[in-house]
């Protein structure tokens, strides 16, 4: 990402949690689509390597497919943030390489589902390559969570101003940019909890999208009797109580994403104010998609259908022409990032 003798470009990676494309998951992200997509390229055929958080995130961090990094699921026994992962793929992940290239590295948010737990090295474990580390212990939360802040435990409660995780990630990333050395490039990885359950929106957004319902697309509440075993199990048709729950879940997911949209805007404005925007690649993506009633399935991911495997992927930066819509199919390893850096 540099020319001969040029200053290396900065990189920002924003990784949402469970954000689909197929069912309209990018609809609330008006600022993000303008500030990243319209200012650069949108990949409309981007796919996760596997529709599950920990294996997908492990692929993003390493550039390896799951059969190579051997993270099979979200459990410790499935190699999620396990000692085996830490000794192997994690020790050769992207931040390790970037650190060797004199990048200043910053992480904030959800890392891997088992991160920070006792059998995974507890909060004292800082993956190699990170200069600043603000990682969530365990799975996504918005309030009442624990962080590992550079290896020290930091507990949070339920104050919006102090604790709302998406905003905390944004604010700490801005401070990192203020404190950085201008002599070296930087890499930020921001991993907000949205739109993962428990779908806790910021107070100012809790009444948004009041009329929105889960999309009644062609597979919504349809029997999966001709599909594989798991899709043959759900009750069909779904009861009214399930429909109400799905509509509420869908609406709340959108509400949580509004804070992520704000975070993107804050970050772009900060990069512009410190005169780094033109030399920074900003990637926006998700670890996997999601479903809300397709084939009568309850909320989740894990299925090899478009709604679960297709994900957002937007990028802007030096040399990327604005307003591009790219049809090329991409598996989300961000392998191009690993190669170009």
UniProtKB/TrEMBL annotation:
It holds the Pfam family Sulfatase. Residues 9-327 form the Sulfatase N-terminal domain. It comes from the Eukaryota. InterPro entries: Alkaline_phosphatase_core_sf, Sulfatase_CS, Sulfatase_N. Keywords: Glycoprotein, Hydrolase, Signal. The keyword Hydrolase applies. Its cofactor is Ca(2+). Signal peptide: none annotated. GO terms for molecular function: glycosaminoglycan binding; N-acetylglucosamine-6-sulfatase activity. SUPFAM superfamilies: Alkaline phosphatase-like. Gene3D superfamilies: Alkaline Phosphatase, subunit A. Belongs to the sulfatase family. This is Putative N-acetylglucosamine-6-sulfatase. It comes from Scophthalmus maximus.
